[in-house]
Design brief:
Order of helices and strands of chain B: HHEEHHHHHHHHHHHHHHEEHHH
Structural class of chain B: mainly alpha
Oligomer: heterodimer
Distance between the termini of chain B: 34 Å
Distance between the termini of chain A: 36 Å
Strand order of the largest sheet of chain A: 1-2
Order of helices and strands of chain A: HHEEHHHHHHHHHHHHHHHHHHHH
Number of helices of chain B: 19
Largest sheet of chain A: 2 strands, antiparallel
Structural class of chain A: mainly alpha
Number of strands of chain A: 2
Strand content of chain B: under 5%
């Protein structure tokens, strides 16, 4: 194992532990005998909790000076992760086991740890119909390995390997514990996303073969790849990540998957799995092929604006609760992608905070939608109504989450959306100003459909479906409270997410100027 | 002229042939222990292959040798031996029930292994073809070797296989003859594209050799025999056909494409094979047929990098090695799920099987995920990565794209097969048609009835051992694929 200079051993151990712990947890849980189902879920939660602590501790002070700037010939600031660990794995395929964490990935890593913990804890309390809770908990831990690995990987091929890890477990979660039409939805999900990831594979090797290395640190800024190579690679990356994110018009797998997935599946899917797409676009797409990104930026921007409008318009006519939230994700991801497409520091930072905010808020929204559907046995907006009368607390939380999601200043959703628009204006030129205006209109539409949702669900006379709701149980409070607090905290102190992003983002986008 | 023979180099061959003899003697002398002798002999063969020191060659004239020891040859010998031992273990329950004569079965299988060893070490075209025939000949008999009354599937499968295979061998031999006539070279390291007026003759010869070998790997359009033969054969024999026999064909193809200009032909074969295999597999309703068509498609992935010539060989062989492990695992699970002597059955027969046999189903998921190239089947993922990397670095990017698209198509049926194991089975009962009764009428507690009609399968110990070893090998290969690449490069 190579020893990266200046990284304390403790941090290196933590990086490995963040992947080994959930993997070991999944194995242990799968090996426990069937009759210990509840015990197994508790064990899974313990493993998830320890992993979460490990991800938190990755922010331990590193003796490596993050502000260290070595102005190389190109004048670009190199990306220096504050913790990394490196070992050869499969030299023949150019795969290094190279992990690291910096300001761009750290918030997403912590969010992954948190959401997995919350979902495992939720599973202890309630197992959706379909299969054993033990298997579900094990699958959640496997998903965590894949997602954390994707965020931590600093090797392009390793990134791809982890990107693939989540595919089948997520399929199993949807197909095993989902709603009535789960098999079709799961199949659609897995085929769509595999299509994305084979394009990623082609892009990865287009770059690795041309550059002779897969080291994302070395590749950041283009690595002197030819313009054609960068354009081909970025085109492949963009489509690959656009499927995952998802970007309109490649989003059609998302509503089905969300509608059918069990609550915990939806939370993980919306909360962190989609982020693999946007994170990949920033780290791999923009980072490795900046010239390609500059070349394709207008197209991405137009598609992002179209996604915002399309998502909002569809939401205005949705009649199913989970489907509406799913489509709202398409709109929100549109804002994130618009931020990335501007290729400015402001834009990318807006994308990063938009990512985290969407993960927190939509995670919460799916928890709430799941709770409402479990109680009312329907997600039809026509059948729901008057929730305020029968379950005021649940209605209040739903109102909070909806308002956070539509981007009220002071709550987490605001920063990402507002600054994506600001970045587009800053970028200037007729196209980007138009896109900014379109996105702003989309933001207004977002407010409109969330208001419509609240009017339908919480206000009005109580319908039959919402009567006799049991109160919010303690496990539900435990699962939701951290998300509520985070939505507030990130909204009030955006620096929580953005504190350490300036340098790496400047390094990733720097090659353009 | 006398030739000095290096017997150390021939040690693996002696061990393999000795195994066949040992089985024969055990059968004649004791009328028992045949399977055990076969398994022990296979292990011995593998040990011999690994123990041969240095890189001795023999049957040389000048620099050109007909028997060449390389790490690659040792690795493939180990694989042939392991597959033979594994298939013997899988066949144990059927042999115990007397569904096939034990002595003959074990003898033929070990003979086939001997052919595999010859293919692995072959240094010239004739040795290669002889080895390939020795590998295949016993299989004609094995496919039909079943004492089941009223079942003609085995016999007709054997005849199909025999006819197609004989024709392909004739084509390959004719090709070799043309090559020799045009270039005067038979040794693999001396094959050339020819020169002058003989160039086109050599090209025809090369194409015929490739076509002949493509029959063995069941490449489209030379694949029609495979699904019928796999489905008609006993499941363990089908396992051997789709692994060892295919590996033999791949080795042979790899040996000839490296010096001959066959890129376009191989590329066309590869594209057709993977696309047709995958598309037809989508519509299959029988388990073994589905795996058969999938293995046709997999052959397409394997030969794709061979289109790039010598630079693609390592990737092709690496894919073949990973594929063989995964395919064997899949077939061994099928064997365990089915009663001895029965065929693979319909896909619907597997509905809900995973709920009764967790570990078998987990092994199947591992195998199928690997074949689809996805984690947890990491071995399959690295196989796919190796192919794509080799194609892109050889400037065959479009072929890599075709491989990638095919991987998506393939996932559709792999996922279907694996998910079926976990689907809730249809409720047991009597279906009444009528306006009132929509669903089945439960005649008793449906769960109890289901448990009575679909008991948990007791897996015979040798079969369980084979599955466990295959699963462990697959997992280890998934985490340490570099070992295989080192062997192939070495």
């Amino acid at each position: 194992m190579m020893d990266p200079p200046g990284v304390p051993a403790a941090l290196q151990v933590l990086l490995i532990a963040a992947l080994v712990l959930p993997a070991a947890g999944a194995v242990v849980v799968a090996l426990l005998p069937t009759r210990l189902d509840r015990g197994a879920r508790v064990v899974a939660t313990v493993f998830a909790a320890v992993t979460f602590v490990a991800t938190l501790l990755l922010a331990l002070p590193s003796s490596r000076d993050v502000g260290w700037t070595d102005y190389s010939a190109s004048g670009a600031v190199p990306v220096v992760p504050w913790a990394e660990v490196q070992a050869p794995w499969v030299p023949s395929l150019g795969i290094e086991f190279h992990l690291g964490v910096d300001g761009v990935s750290y918030p997403l890593v912590v969010l992954t740890g948190l959401l997995t913990l919350l979902c495992c804890a939720y599973t202890v309390w309630k197992v959706p119909a379909g299969g054993s809770g033990r298997t579900l908990a094990a699958l959640l831990l496997v998903l965590e390995v894949g997602i954390l690995g994707t965020f931590l990987a600093l090797d392009l091929v390793l990134f791809f390997v982890f990107f693939e890890v989540v595919l089948l477990p997520m399929y199993a979660v949807i197909a095993g514990w989902g709603g009535a039409d789960r098999r079709r939805a799961a199949r659609k999900f897995v085929l769509y996303t595999l299509f994305g990831s084979v394009l990623l594979l082609l892009g990865v090797f287009t770059v690795v073969v041309a550059a002779g290395t897969g080291d994302l640190l070395a590749l950041a800024g283009g690595y002197g790849l030819s313009r054609t190579t960068q354009q081909v690679a970025f085109a492949l990356f963009a489509v690959a990540f656009a499927v995952k994110a998802p970007l309109w018009p490649l989003h059609t797998w998302l509503p089905d998957a969300h509608t059918e997935a069990p609550t915990v599946g939806s939370v993980i899917l919306a909360g962190v799995l989609l982020k693999m797409g946007t994170y990949g676009l920033i780290r791999v797409g923009v980072g490795v092929a900046p010239e390609g990104a500059a070349w394709a930026a207008p197209v991405l921007g137009v598609l992002a604006a179209a996604a915002i409008i399309a998502g909002s318009l569809v939401c205005l006519r949705q009649t199913e609760l989970k489907r509406l939230i799913a489509y709202s994700s398409v709109g929100h991801m549109g804002f994130v992608l618009l931020g990335i497409a501007t290729l400015t520091v402001t834009g990318v930072q807006a994308a990063l905070i938009g990512n985290v905010a969407h993960g927190v808020i939509t995670g919460l929204l799916f928890f709430l939608a799941g709770a409402i559907k479990d109680r009312a046995h329907t997600g039809d907006l026509g059948a729901l109504g008057g929730l305020r009368e029968t379950a005021p607390r649940l209605a209040g939380l739903l109102g909070f989450a909806a308002i956070a999601s539509l981007g009220l200043p002071g709550l987490a959703g605001f920063w990402g959306e507002a600054f994506a628009v600001v970045a587009a204006v800053e970028r200037g030129g007729a196209l980007w100003i138009t896109l900014a205006v379109v996105a702003a209109i989309g933001g207004a539409l977002t407010a409109a459909y969330f208001m419509r949702l609240l009017r339908r669900v919480t206000h009005g006379p109580a319908t039959e479906a919402v009567t006799g709701f049991p109160a919010i149980s303690r496990p539900e409070w435990i699962a939701w409270a951290p998300l509520v607090l985070l939505a507030l905290a990130v909204g009030l102190v955006p620096a929580l997410v953005l504190a350490a992003t300036a340098d790496p983002v400047a390094a990733l986008t720097g090659a353009l100027r | 002229m006398t030739q000095a023979v290096n017997h150390v180099a021939l040690l693996p061959l002696y061990a393999a042939a000795g195994t066949a003899l040992l089985v024969l003697v055990a059968d004649l002398a004791f009328a028992r222990f045949q399977v055990l002798a076969g398994i022990l002999g296979s292990i011995g063969t593998a040990v011999c292959a690994l123990a041969v020191p240095g890189r001795p060659s023999t049957f040389c004239s000048g620099d050109l040798c007909s028997w060449i020891t390389t790490p690659r040859a040792a690795l493939t010998t180990v694989i042939f031996a392991a597959l033979t031992a594994g298939v013997l273990a899988l066949s144990t329950p059927a042999l115990r029930m007397g569904l096939a004569p034990r002595g003959e079965f074990s003898f033929l299988l070990t003979c086939s292994m001997t052919g595999g060893v010859v293919v692995a070490y072959a240094g010239d075209l004739i040795t290669l073809i002889v080895g390939l025939e020795t590998l295949t000949l016993p299989l004609y008999v094995l496919v039909g070797l079943r004492r089941v009354r009223g079942s003609r599937a085995g016999t007709s499968a054997a005849v199909t296989f025999f006819l197609v295979s004989v024709v392909s061998t004739a084509v390959a031999l004719l090709g070799a003859a043309l090559l020799y006539a045009a270039t005067g070279a038979l040794h693999l390291s001396a094959l050339t594209v020819g020169s002058g007026e003989f160039r086109s003759l050599a090209a025809v010869g090369a194409a015929m050799v490739v076509v002949g070998f493509a029959f063995k790997v069941a490449a489209v359009p030379l694949h029609a025999w495979a699904p019928a033969t796999y489905d008609g054969a006993p499941v363990p024999v089908a396992a051997y056909l789709s692994t060892a026999s295919k590996l033999g064909g791949v080795l042979a193809l790899a040996a000839v494409v490296q010096r001959l200009d066959t890129g376009p032909l191989v590329a066309v074969l590869a594209v057709l094979t993977m696309t047709v295999g995958n598309l037809v597999a989508l519509r299959q309703t029988r388990m073994v047929r589905l795996l058969a068509w999938s293995s046709v498609a997999q052959a397409g992935y394997i030969i794709a990098p061979l289109a790039a010539g010598a630079v693609g060989i390592d990737a092709a062989l690496a894919y073949a090695v990973f594929f063989v492990a995964l395919e064997f695992l899949a077939f061994s699970v099928i064997t365990a799920f089915r009663a001895p002597g029965t065929d693979g059955g319909d896909l619907d027969d597997y509905r809900g099987a995973g709920r009764r046999n967790r570990w078998l189903a987990a092994a199947f998921v591992l195998a199928v995920a690997g074949l689809a190239g996805l984690p947890p089947g990491l071995a399959g993922l690295f196989a796919k990565v190796a192919i794509v990397q080799s194609l892109i670095s050889a400037n065959w990017g479009w072929l890599a794209g075709v491989v990638a698209i095919n991987a998506v198509i393939a996932l559709a049926y792999y996922v279907r097969a694996a998910a079926l194991l976990y689907t809730a089975p249809d409720p047991v009962g009597v279906h009444l048609t009528g306006p009132v009764q929509a669903g089945p009428v439960a005649v008793a507690d449906p769960d109890l009835l289901r448990a009575a009609t679909h008991p948990r399968i007791a897996v015979a110990r040798p079969v369980a051992a084979a599955i466990a070893v295959a699963a462990v090998v697959t997992v280890v290969l998934g985490f340490a694929p570099q070992a295989i690449f080192d062997f192939l490069n070495g």
